[in-house]
Specification:
Layout: H1 2-32, H2 35-38, H3 56-68, H4 76-80, H5 85-96
Helix pairs in contact: 1-5, 3-5
Length: 100
């Protein structure tokens, strides 16, 4: 009986951890859409704004301003409207956590 209990415990632990892993991967997928302008993991090439290590709350505010039209932009107002407020907060947290 004990032989079967360890695999069951491991399977149950894996099933519980899977949704959390999927969440992390989804945020990385959303953040990857920013790489064209802001660089991989938010480390931009010269001339573009880097996002890595920036303050999360400031990024969220900027994104909300783009989304609402308060802050003028060429592309960011369109891009930000494609995400919910919660998704923008998660993307901002992802970039804030990256090393500069």
């Amino acid at each position: 009986m004990r032989f079967w209990s360890l695999p069951l415990v491991l399977a149950a632990a894996s099933a519980i951890a899977l949704p959390a892993q999927a969440q992390v991967n989804q945020v990385r997928v959303w953040a990857a859409a920013c790489a064209n302008c802001h660089g991989t993991d938010g480390r931009a090439q010269p001339g573009m704004e880097s996002l890595a290590g920036k303050d999360k709350d400031e990024m969220v505010q900027k994104l909300m301003d783009f989304k609402s039209g308060r802050k003028p932009a060429t592309l960011m107002h369109q891009i930000s409207k494609g995400y919910s407020d919660e998704q923008l907060a998660q993307i901002s947290a992802y970039f804030a956590a990256q090393k500069k």
